[in-house]
Amino acid sequence: MISLVQDLRFALRMLAKNPAYAAAAVVTLALGLGANIAIFTVVHSVVLAPLPYERPEELARVYGTRTSQGIEQAGLSEADFYDYRERLESVDLQMYQWHGLSLSDSERPRELATIRTSAGLLDLLGLSPLKGRTFLPEEEVEGKHRVVVLGYGFWQRELGGDPDIVGQTLLLDDQEWTVVGVMPEGFGFPEPGIEIWIPAVRPTEPRRNGRYLISVARLRPGATLEEARGEAEALATGLEQSHPDTNAGWSVSMVPLHEQVVGEAQPALLALLVAVGLVLLVACANVANLTLSRSVLRQREVAVRSALGAGRWRLARLLLTESTVLSLVGGLLGLALAAWGVEALIAASPAELPRVEEIAIDLPVLLFAVGLALLTGPLVGLLPAFQLTRHGIAASLRGAGRGSVGERRGARVRDALTVAEVALSLMLLLGAGLMLKSFLRLTDVDPGFRADGVAAVQLFVYGDRYEESEQQAAFFDRLLEEIRGFPGVESAGVTNSLPLSVIRAGSVSVRIADRPEDEGQQAGYRVANPAFFETLGIPVLRGRGLSDQDREGAPPVVLLNQRGADLYFPGESPLDREISLNAGETWWTVVGVVGNIRGETLEADAQPEIYRPFLQAVTGSMTVVARTGGDPAPLVEALQRKVWEVDPRQPVFRALPLSDLVAESTAQRRFYTALIGLFAALALVLAAVGLYGVISYSVSQRTQEIGIRMTLGARSWDVQSLVLLRGALLVAAGVLLGLLGGSALARGISGFLFGVSALDPATFGWVSAGLAAVALLACWLPARRAARLDPVRALREG
User: Which residue, of 220, 236, 262, is where some domain finishes?
Assistant: First the structure.
């Protein structure tokens, strides 16, 4: 212990005597460690940490599945949910669905983020309310259901944190609701920002069509997930047999809730963790190279210590203590950088990144930071320590300077580290280049509609004022008439679901007249008025579009998109053919075919879609869209004001330019591309600095040789070529290894790429050339300095 303290004191003294070296090493390590700590913080909070519920490993998400129709996952129908809840013995099953309740005031009514749940859902998660209680089973009955549980944020913001709120009533959608509980701070199931939970009323005749209920299960004591899956699948088979019209082909699956919540974020975040690991390796190689260059000056010191009886392990421990001190100081500075970086990551993170509100530097992250710093110290110092202590005493005492065997071996080690830096940097740059090209390809995708100049306002028109479909239709008719009178508005329409929207289009099963029922297939389901297609620039390809005469009482008609027409009627015209939806008795005539749009994401191919006329399928959940020839931002505000002029109590769910939806659809890919690009740029800078240092040190060691060459007539270009050649060989070796490693890395990230081959020749070529150019520039600077040496002075100083 005493010797360790002595080593620590000596290490601090030596670093204090070499502040430039210490500062360079600490900053380099801080950058590498800080990036790793920041990304690990996100990975730990999002992927590794358990969900903030009681015994979260027992929770699972339950899906309806129908793989024969190309559907991987769907919700449960009302009747199926109640069958499963009552008959499954291995799990407690509950459900929820999104709902709209409005809180109105005299100025700006707004839609509350509301979840409608079965009575036991909140208890299922195992979190007790901060005040009051959750729902009772009898509150699933009509007439007893007007009770609410409040979110903590809503309680504080809207109600001032009233301590006596339980038992009071709130006016929501012009009806009185009794507050029975308040959830604790931070609780936001199924996502942050939920303001109110209300009980779902059990229908007297639950429907088996319409699979929209989101279900969550908790394993009962002693049950396993595999047992629960088997029991649920057996029950699904029984429902297929007893209800073939609605359940044929439908099964059920259970996915651990953690897996469902983390979703697609896990592989992307783990890929980022690998990327910052490569950055740290580049930083370690850089510092190791710097330490090796400095170690030449310490050979005599080490030899003297060895002559006085210090063993090789004792000497190595002394040197490793120095590198560990550097890494710990770098880790401390890196932790500060990581704290800032985590805040920046949270601010820049896309909406799709789960559990953002839980991201924080906590004890596991601090332990990771300390462990990584302690591991980095030996990683940086082991090779220099081994190199410095391997030579004999006599060789070191004779000078062990320029031209010695030790120095030649040290040069080879430094060269190898430099090659590794270049290779690792190229690997990162290739990954960043592929993702950037993939992102650019995605932004070039034609979404099938024109988003420029379009403003959108999403509305939920419900409540006592709009109980009848005629009242809902009248509201939208009046609103559209008012909007069309705005200066600069070219057209205005409505739809139940915008493309690329958080409010997804529904789906229906399609059966074609004169064909067997088992040929029915799934299609996206949209409702629109005639002007919707003009407003978004969706062309009518065949037949006719919708018209104002397609209303209640007129013959039922639909439009198909081109994808649906090709799938359902290959090689024949779909016009005037009849289809039924969800095995219903009504037959709808296809009157036109419109262009495909990307409904879910820009990455996914267009799916079959059916459009029904708004006036034949009136619903209170609609989005108004309006096109203007200029900037749509002022129109967004005008649309909101017009909604409140038409109905002062009508809340607006969301209002935005349609181009924002397109930008949001690529936000996640933009986020990951920017991060890996940042890490690649950091690695490139570190590699360039390391290469510059190695060539500069080589020039300083060859000063006398360069002086002799210049005295004998060597020109400046000859000297520059001599230095550049060595740098070029290192760069070439690094690029070659980087291409090999980058090929493997590219295959690993192929799942994140869109429209780009993992081994895209153009990307590999341009990125390699760019890295080589930057690296050669780093070599040219010391070469240029060498060419300007004064031969006489060089000979004297050599």
Answer: 262
